[in-house]
Structures are given as C-alpha cells and as structure tokens.
Design brief:
Layout lengths: L30 H5 L2 E6 L14 E7 L7 H17 L5 E4 L15 H12 L12 E3 L20 H11 L1 E2 L2 E2 L1 H6 L6 E2 L6 E2 L5 E5 L10 E5 L5 H9 L9 H8 L6 E5 L22 H9 L6 H11 L6 E4 L5 E6 L6 E6 L20 E3 L3 E8 L7 E7 L4 E5 L14 H21 L8 H9 L2 H14 L7 H12 L10 H12 L4 H5 L17 E4 L6 E4 L10 E6 L4 E6 L1
Length: about 575
C-alpha cells in the first residue's frame, strides 16, 4: 500500500526536503499504523515464583544493539545470553534490540525470508539456545536500518521504506498477512509476554507499561522506544505546528514520560553521551539538511547529533531513570549525578558489529567502564524497591563481567575475599590506568618528533590496554593472585620502546606506592609485601615482553623514581631494550 509523503518542515512551515513516501506490502495494514505511536500495557501470564535467585517482583531483561550482520560475533552474543540465563537462573522476561538490526542498508521487504532468518531468527531463535529461544524481543531502528550511509546520499534524506519493512514484518505470520497480528498490535488488549511472538517492532515509536502490584506497594515500569534517527527533526517540526500533532514522537514522548511515580526507561539507538569517534566530529549531516541545522543552531542546539539529542531532551525537561542505547560499537556505563547534566546511560552496542575505539577520556567517575568487547547487558530491577534502583550486569564474550548500580559509579564486586596482595595490586592498577588515561586525554603535541613519538608509543592500543586492565580488576568475580599476575604480564607485553608517561611508568610508580615493589620486581615473581633488594644492588633485571620469548634488559641504578626512558637495542638472539633510570 502506498503511503503518505513525509515532508519535514522548517520553522516557517515551508518544506525543507521531500522524503520518498513509504510503501507497505501488507494489504491489511495501513501506512498510518506503522507511523502512529502505540502505547501498550504488558502482562505476563507465565508462572513466576520467588526463588533464591529471583523475586517475583523482579524484572530482568537483556539489551544489545549494533549486531545486525548475522555472522559469528552476533551469534556468540546470543550464545552468551543463553549461557548467562542458564548460569544465573534468572531468565529475562524480554530482550531489547537497540537498532542497526540489518547491516549495512536495512532490509527491503517485510517478506524477505533470507534476511530475517539470517539476522534475527537464526540468531536469537536457534533451537540450541534453550533459555532465550522464544523470549519476546522488542526492537527499535538504528541509522543503518534507515539506510543513511549509501554513496551519493542527499543530506537529511531518510528512507522510510526500509523502516516500513522492519515494522511491517511484525504484522506478518509465517511471512503472510495476518489479521490476528493486526489485532494483537492494535493496543486494545494488553500484550502478554508469555504469548508474544519473538519479533516485535509495531511502530517507529511505542511504549510499554508493566504495572506493579499496587497492593504490595510496587511501582509501574514504563518503557519508551524511540526512533532517534528522526527525533531531532521531529522536535524541530513540532515547533512549527499550528495545531499540535500528537503523533509526532517528540510530542508523544513529552506527553507520556511525565509520571514521577513510575520507573521510566528510554530506549534509543543513539546515546546522549558519547566517547567514540562521533564525539570528535559532527555527523548531523546524515540526519538533517543544512537549513534544518541552521534553524536548530539559531535555537541553541549545536554540536554532533548525539549532543543535539541530549540538548533537546533537556529542553523538553525529560528525565529518565536510565537511558539505553547502542550506535557506539562497544559497551560503556556513564553516570553523571550533577544537577545540570544528570544522566544514567548504558551503551550496549557490542552486539556483533565491528568494534570501535574509545576516543574521549574523561573523569573515571563519569565513565567507570568502557568495554571494547562484544557482549550484552542484563538489567534487573525490583518493582518493590522505593528507590527504583537498577542493576546493570555487563557480560562480554571474553568472559568479563562487570556489575554496577544505577546510583553509583563504583563497581559492585563479590563479597568473596581476595588476598591482600591482590587488593594492593588492584589499587596500583586502577590508579596507574586512570593517570594514564588522564594523560591520554590531553591533546597530542603538534607535528614534530614529539608528535611522532606520541603516535608510536600511545594511541588506541595503549588506551585499550588501560581500559582492559581496569575492567579486569573491577570485575564482579574475585581475582586469584596468579591469575592477576598472568593477566598483567600478558597485557603489558610490547615491542615498542617505553617513553615518558607510558603506562609501564605509571604502573611502576603505583606499585611502589601500594605494593612496595617495582613493576620489574613484580614481573620477576616477587609478591607485594616481600622484602625487596636494595635498588643499588640491582644491576640487571630481565622481564618477558612477548609470548615468543623475547626479553627486556633493564639497567637499574639507584633512584627514588620509576623507570622513565627505554631505548631499544637488538642482539643476534632476541630483541633487548636498555632502560636508563
């Protein structure tokens, strides 16, 4: 069915650009159905009993995004979900897919069986995944689902046909038109989590309300699913409306997300706070025309697209207990508790796409975790909790598990005891890595030999080493002494010579502070607290730097400072490096 033409308007009401009208193949489905916001009540008729692992008032769900290639990495994330559900004995009530469901250019038809089987059913509904197969998924679109990155694209041109195909698939049963599905998503009856199909994307914008038991003092859980690729434009359009359009998602969200007594969660593809490459340059041209960007700038909305989203939602005075997003191909936790910038945000963009480096380094209290890993986040909340806290468990396919509460940047760790030496090593690692990332946050030198040295000895690999070490020592499970040593030595292997402000230099200083030994001594097998030999007697020390057996020869002379300069020499047998102190 041919639908209406979607024409964004400038503030004076004139058309800015004509977007191709969307087409729906389903003869039983009107185009307005998929563009009109839907509000749903959720119920769950599945039997739920309180257990040692899960209270009946608890709600657990999984989130991930940027996985839509149907390849090995995405399947590993689904397998990890199944493994975690089995191991924790906390089965999710539902799974939320945060966009970029079909790389690279969306899907062209709701009946494209090959695409949906590869990107969705073959991933999340594999019969071998006994814990998550059959769990309903709530899905939102991302920028790639809108086909925003093809060659020759006009600025601000958004392909709604691609989105219509993904939404339209929800209204099909076995790839055929279904009046039953039309009635299911009409919103006249509650959606039963125990009976929903696996694939659920009933509109570009929709909300779900899971009511708590009032008699038991439980609050409601309200979830809002937004098409963030058009949200800025939708907000701009709303400002020029002579008659307020209740179907504009910016208006609808502002109208719906006002209940202070409910827990309110927002799900959108784009994060409001970003530390990846998009934080360093503006990508607004993919979503907006030049005229639209000029109009927004006049209103004070500037910067990259993520920043515009944040500024607009603050202007709308929207507040959520947590915001979940993807777009950044990694996982991170951001918590800003200041009154002006208050935001609790989980980025779960490690669903399977090519991973992305961190590019912005800020106060570790604001970004207590950045994981350049594939994985997902498990979210748990208790509807009986008057403080409306959320528990976030970050799981990576590399088997790292971080846990945070929505009220604190401090990672939650197991109550099982660790030996004193590991506690001291952890303090040294966290201090040195945070100092290194703080150094790395400063602008590099201008083009010069210093710039060449900076590019050689620092860079994304160094920052990732620091983040990996932080994540390992912040993990939920306790760490063994030998495990800690092995992980550090594995991560610190390197061929490049050390230089001032290297991670090794910071680590050596922090180890002397907390462990009473240098990094060289630690690498030799000495333990924190052991009597160390006088530095004056340490004329030569050898530590491994590669799995291939290469060594570093370090000349030590009396000093109260950590090693700060490493020059490389090579003999006929193995790479060797001389360190002057």
């Amino acid at each position: 069915m041919q639908g209406r033409s979607v024409s964004p308007k400038a503030l004076d009401g004139s058309a800015v650009v004509e977007i191709a009208s969307a087409t729906v193949e389903n003869k039983l489905l009107d185009i307005d159905t998929i563009f009109k916001p839907h509000n749903y009540k959720l119920i769950d008729t599945r039997e739920t009993k309180s257990t040692a692992e899960q209270k009946s008032s608890e709600v657990c769900f999984y989130v991930e995004g940027c996985g839509g290639d149907g390849l090995a990495a995405q399947k590993k994330v689904a397998e990890l979900m199944d493994e975690v559900a089995r191991g924790t004995r906390k089965k999710p009530k539902f799974i939320i897919l945060l966009g970029d469901n079909f790389y690279d250019n969306g899907v062209d038809s709701a009946k494209n069986k090959e695409a949906f089987e590869k990107h969705f059913y073959g991933v999340f509904q594999d019969h071998k995944l006994t814990e998550i197969a059959g769990i309903p998924c709530f899905i939102i679109p991302g920028n790639h689902d809108h086909n925003l990155h093809y060659w020759g694209k006009t600025a601000g041109d958004i392909d709604f046909n691609k989105i219509a195909a993904q939404i339209g698939h929800s209204y099909l049963e076995n790839y055929s038109e279904s009046d039953k599905k039309n009635k299911l998503y009409a919103g006249e009856e509650p959606l039963d989590l125990g009976k929903l199909p696996p694939y659920n994307m009933p509109s570009r914008f929709y909300s779900c309300n899971l009511a708590g038991n009032v008699e038991k003092g439980e609050h409601n859980l309200e979830m809002f699913f937004v098409d963030s690729s058009t949200y800025v434009r939708d907000y701009l359009n709303s400002l020029s409306e002579k008659i307020r359009n209740p179907d504009n998602q910016a208006n609808k969200l502002a109208d719906s997300a006002k209940n202070k007594n409910s827990m309110k969660l927002l799900f959108m593809h784009h994060p409001l706070f970003s530390v990846d490459k998009r934080a360093l340059h503006s990508d607004a041209k993919y979503y907006l025309t030049k005229l639209e960007m000029d109009k927004l700038a006049e209103l004070g909305f500037k910067g990259n697209y993520n920043e515009m989203l944040d500024q607009i939602m603050r202007a709308q005075e929207l507040n959520f207990d947590a915001v979940f997003s993807a777009h950044t191909h990694s996982m991170l936790y951001h918590l800003n508790q200041s009154k002006e910038k208050k935001l609790c945000q989980v980025v779960a963009g490690g669903g399977g796409g090519k991973l992305e480096d961190r590019r912005v380094f800020t106060n570790p209290q604001l970004v207590p975790a950045y994981m350049k890993n594939h994985g997902f986040v498990s979210v748990t909340t208790d509807l009986h909790d008057p403080e409306k806290k959320l528990e976030f468990d970050f799981y990576s396919v590399e088997k790292t598990h971080l846990k945070f509460m929505s009220t604190s940047p401090t990672p939650v760790r197991s109550s099982l005891a660790e030996v004193d030496s590991v506690i001291a090593i952890r303090k040294a690692i966290l201090e040195s890595c945070h100092k290194y990332l703080d150094f790395y946050s400063k602008p590099p030198p201008r083009l010069s030999t210093a710039w060449v040295e900076w590019k050689l000895f620092h860079g994304s690999a160094g920052a990732q080493r620091a983040d990996d070490l932080i994540n390992f020592f912040n993990r939920y499970e306790p760490i063994g002494e030998e495990e800690a040593k092995k992980y550090i030595l594995d991560k610190m292997y390197r061929w490049a010579p050390l230089c001032e402000n290297s991670l090794e230099c910071y680590l050596s200083k922090s180890m002397e502070k907390f462990c009473k030994l240098t990094y060289v001594e630690f690498s030799q097998g000495k333990k924190p607290g052991e009597q160390q030999a006088s530095l004056a007697t340490q004329e030569l020390a050898v530590i491994p730097v590669s799995a291939a057996g290469a060594s570093v020869v370090i000349n030590i002379s009396p000093s109260d400072s950590a090693p700060i300069l490493l020059t490389q020499t090579t003999d006929t047998n193995s790479p060797r490096m001389n360190l002057s102190v």
